[in-house]
Every structure is written in structure tokens, then in C-alpha cells.
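seq as requested:
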Amino acid sequence: ELVGEYAELANRVVKEKNSRKALITFLWNRFLNDENGFEEELADLLTRICTNRDEFELYEELVRHQLAEQQKRETRGEGGWSLDEEFLRDILISLCRKSGDFEGLRKIALEDLPSHYEPLVEELVSRGKADEAAEVCRKALAKAQDYQQSDIHEKLAELLAASGKDPEVLEHYMAAFPDSISQEQILSEIKKISKKLGKWDYAKERLFASRKEDYGSNYNVLAELFSDEKDFEKLRIIGAECSDIGVMQSAALACSETKPEYSIEIYRKMVENLAGKGSGEAYRAAGEYAKQMKRLCKKTGKYEEFSEMMAELKVGYPKRRGLHMELDKAVRD
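C-alpha cells:
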């Protein structure tokens, strides 16, 4: 649709006006009135069309005028439709990068920290100015909301790593870890640097303290870490706190040989959680984990405790016949 409709209209404009500026203005008006969800495509098309200073300046003027008008309406408390201001600044950044206007890029990015720190950091690094790029990250951190900080900490750690500032690098990786989407990679860096500094025990305590109940992957990575470290006390706590069945199972399995009582505790929570879900699939899973629990209870001389728990669950859910069948099977098998 974009190629067919807009290309045809744009060609007509160029023929009639014999001007690329007319084409830019035409497409900008289409951009402002777009009802098909093509804003990003049109903005990118406009940026690619611009090839000389006059065209760059025209497009920049159109964007800045839109920004100024929206800010005036906001100041006056007027409602109505408006474009996302961050998106408009993204356009200005793209224009600066294509036109080679480094100072313009720097100005826009610094005015709108932390939202646009990355393009400026990338440009500075490409120019061999890693120290200045790190300073931009620090300024962005000072203005960032909690949810924005993880990526900035990670970027700052990467920049500082090249300069050998290991203690500071470690702290930034530690700060980035809890909310990062690349926790395994960050954990690898934390482990390498902290062992080099003789601070691995300190790092493990910080990592454990960073766990988040509403962030499943955080628990998953920590469960793997403390399984490798054979830290059964921490695995017990992870199993007790986490609601993710996969993480709980990993913790229970890791504890089963050395600390079977911890595994029993975790399996018990898993069975209770699944019993409350009210589905056949959950009941079958509860039965399977109950069997694992029974095996460990027999091993540790706590079979009577297991039988009592199965009976309590059936009393707690008197009308769930499917659950009763699976629990009875676990006791019987």
C-alpha cells in the first residue's frame, strides 16, 4: 500500500512542482494525516529521500515546528491528537546522523536524556571517544527512571571494561543484572571480574539479594548459579519464594541428594500450588511431584508426614475428584 499509493502520488508531485522539496512537504503532510499506521515507514522514507543540506533543513524545520506546536498546546492545557514527542526526536536524531551533523545530534541527545543517550554514545565510540561516551552514560543514569537504568548500567560497564576499571565495571554489571534481558551474559562477566578481584563471595550475596518474585528469569538464572555452587540454603529460599514450577523443580532436584529435606519442602509447595489450580493437567503434575516427594520421604524416614499431607490436601479440596485420583495414585504406586 505504501509503495503503491504514496509512490504514485509522490511522482505526480515531483512532475508538477519539479522539486524534491515539494515531495518532502507532500510526504510530511501525508505523515501528519496518516490513518494506516505507516508513521514509522513514512518517517524513514522522508529521511532516506533527503540528500542535501537544503532538504535536511526543510525536514528538520517541519519536525521542529510540529514539536513546538504540540508543546504550545500542552502548555495551554489543550487536548487533541499529537505525535509521540520521543518519536519526533528520533526523527531528528536520524537526520543528524545521516547529514553528519554531530553537534546537532549531541544537542538533541543531551537535551533529552536518558531517552536518546544511545545514538550519542555510539557516535562517540565510533570517533574513539570512549571516555566522553561513558560520561554521557553517567549523565543519563542521573536522570533515568528505575526501569531505564539497567541498560545504561550495562552499556557503561562495557565502556569502562576497555579501560581496566574492574571494580567500577563490576558494580555497574551488578546494578544491571536484576532487570536485564541478558542476565546469563552479565552473570558470566560478573563471575569473571569478581573472581579476578577476589570478590566472588561478595558478588554472590549481591546477586542473591537482587532476586525478584515477579521476574521469573531472574530466579531461573539464580537457581542455576546456586545449583552449580551447591549453595543449598539459597536454593531452599529460591524454592520457597518462587512460583515458577520449572525453577522450583530445578531447586528441588539440586538439593535432593545432599539436602533431601529441602527438596521435600519445595515439592510440598509445588504439589500444593498445583492442587489449587483446578485443572486435570495441574492435578497430573501434582501427582508426579507427589511421587518424587514420597521417594524422598521414604529415604529420610518421613513417609508418615507424606501420607498426612496427601490426606490434608484431599480434605482441603473435597470436591476435586481428579485431584483425589492423582494423589491416591501417588500414595499407591
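The chain has a mean pLDDT of 89.
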